[in-house]
Design brief:
alpha/beta, Rossmann fold, 2 domains, four-stranded parallel sheet, two-stranded antiparallel ribbon, 5 helices, globular
């Protein structure tokens, strides 16, 4: 069985301490984090990996899965939780449980995703949540904080930022299979919650 393994040393609580001594590292030069993930997935496809293993948090696994979807490559993805929240459906194994796993006896389970569009342009896929504001919850030095979504997505920098202002516009809507879902204005409630972190 050929394995393609992606480890994110900057993921959440575990970070660089997760592996004792990684034996192989692929240099990705000056690529952004997201481009490097895509490069690795493309490489695994080229070499016909039987399974892709992602070690990281919800964001890491989301980006690996998005690359698989973009490429149209149907290969099993196994997620090992090493992030901040580890709440998504792509993270099925704790580090301890993964050490005990027999990969040849695992079953495959389909996981749904939300396609996120802006003006009919696909922005990505969401397996856990969709960022509607300027911040998201992440980890710096083991502490859960609000981080700048723009700094993380554009430069892969973790910069603390407090949420402010409206999270949605008057045109905001949620569609499920093309039909609008009624949703109340949740800006003030969310802002109070996030400011309390």
């Amino acid at each position: 069985m050929k394995l393609g393994v992606i480890f994110n040393p900057g993921a959440g609580r575990y970070g660089e301490d997760y592996l004792n001594r990684p034996r192989i590292a692929i240099g990705t030069g000056s690529m952004t984090f997201f481009r490097a993930l895509r490069f690795l997935v493309e490489s695994f496809r080229k070499y016909r990996a039987d399974i892709v293993i992602g070690i990281g948090g919800d964001g890491t696994l989301n980006n690996i899965a998005s690359s698989l979807l973009d490429l149209g490559w149907k290969v099993p993805l196994l997620g090992v939780a090493a992030g901040t929240a580890n709440v998504g459906p792509l993270l099925r194994f704790s580090p301890k449980r993964f050490k005990l796993a027999d990969l040849s006896s695992l079953s495959i389970e389909a996981v749904g995703a939300v396609e996120v569009l802006k003006d009919s342009t696909r922005m990505g896929y969401a397996f856990v949540d969709v960022i509607l504001g300027k911040t998201f919850i992440g980890t710096i030095d083991g502490k859960t904080v609000n981080l700048s979504a723009e700094a993380f997505l554009m430069r892969h920098e973790k910069i603390v930022e407090r949420p402010t202002g409206r999270l949605t516009t008057p045109n905001f809507r949620i569609l499920k299979n093309g039909s609008e879902i009624a949703c109340k204005d949740f800006d003030e409630e969310w802002l109070n919650y996030l400011n309390g972190l």
